[in-house]
Design goal:
- This is Hydrogenase nickel incorporation protein HypB.
- GO terms for molecular function: GTP binding; GTPase activity; nickel cation binding; zinc ion binding.
- InterPro entries: CobW/HypB/UreG_nucleotide-bd, Hyd_mat_HypB, P-loop_NTPase.
- Keywords: GTP-binding, Hydrolase, Metal-binding, Nickel, Nucleotide-binding, Zinc.
- It comes from Scytonema millei VB511283.
- By secondary structure, the chain is α/β, with parallel strands linked by helices.
- It has one domain: Rossmann fold, CATH 3.40.50.
- Helices cover about 45% and strands about 15% of the residues.
- The chain is built from eight helices and seven strands.
- It has a seven-stranded parallel β-sheet with strand order 3-2-4-1-5-6-7, with helices on both faces.
- Helix 3 (about 75-80) links the parallel strand 2 and strand 3 (about 85-90).
- The longest helix is centred in the first third of the chain and has 27 residues, at about 5-30.
- It is globular, with a radius of gyration of 18 Å.
């Protein structure tokens, strides 16, 4: 059976994107940087999570953010208040960041700062439950967010992001008591899709679960540093 032209084009685009992602990751590896691709639907809490993360970790870790948004720099401006490097990328009509866009962000980082001084780059992807997970950007780990307000069925209805995630944060858990929502059911549905994903329920409002998230971030950076030290002998 012959592929349709649309299917062949999609495969070619993903192949070209993967080549770009591999180059981006090679740059991060060269500099000893850990990179997370942070993904979710709009309003799940990506930016506030990054705010909490920067506030808690910026004195101990050197962190930069590549901030993806379709049209504005509103989220980038929020994160700049924490005095860390923030590179804003506007995607226009595109519903996700791709490796070429992130390569542009890396280029800006390289010319404005010394990447070798950084420990962590957080890529905040465009709010979308589908496209971001299909396009790698050079990350070492994919971090997905799912708000309790989105419903228990989202992992089953939109499985790609949850299948690809290395860490899932169930956000806004302080609201669960006000909703007909069972966090255990969300966890069970996620486990059907991805049995091995790290799941961390959090509330940015109350702070519940954030320490677990911070520990996971530190563990990934320590893992990367160990890999670098082994390679360099």
């Amino acid at each position: 059976m012959h592929q349709t032209s649309d299917a062949a084009l999609g495969i070619n685009l993903l192949h070209a994107n993967q080549e770009g992602a591999d180059r981006n990751r090679a740059h991060f590896d060269e500099w000893g940087i850990t990179c997370f691709n942070v993904m979710s639907s709009p309003g799940a809490g990506k930016t506030v999570l990054l705010e909490k993360t920067l506030a808690a970790l910026k004195d101990d870790l050197k962190i930069a953010v590549i901030e993806g948004d379709m049209t504005t720099e509103l989220d980038a401006d929020r994160l700049r208040q924490y005095n860390v490097p923030v590179i804003a990328i506007n995607t226009g009509r595109a519903c996700h960041l791709d490796s070429k866009m992130v390569a542009g962000g890396i280029h800006q980082l390289e010319h404005q700062y010394n990447p070798a001084d950084l420990d962590l780059v957080l890529v905040e992807n465009v709010g979308n439950l589908v496209c971001p997970a299909e396009f790698e950007v050079g990350e070492h780990a994919k971090v997905a967010l799912l708000s309790v307000t989105e419903g228990e069925d989202k992992p089953l209805k939109y499985p790609v992001m949850f299948r690809e995630a290395d860490c899932l944060l169930i956000t806004k858990i302080d609201l669960a008591i006000h909703l007909d929502m069972n966090i255990d059911t969300i966890v069970a549905n996620v486990r059907q899709i991805n049995p091995n994903v790290k799941i961390i329920p959090v509330s940015a409002k109350t702070g519940e679960g954030l320490a677990v998230w911070f520990d996971w971030v530190r563990s990934q950076i320590a893992k990367k540093e160990l890999e670098v030290s082994r390679i360099r002998g």
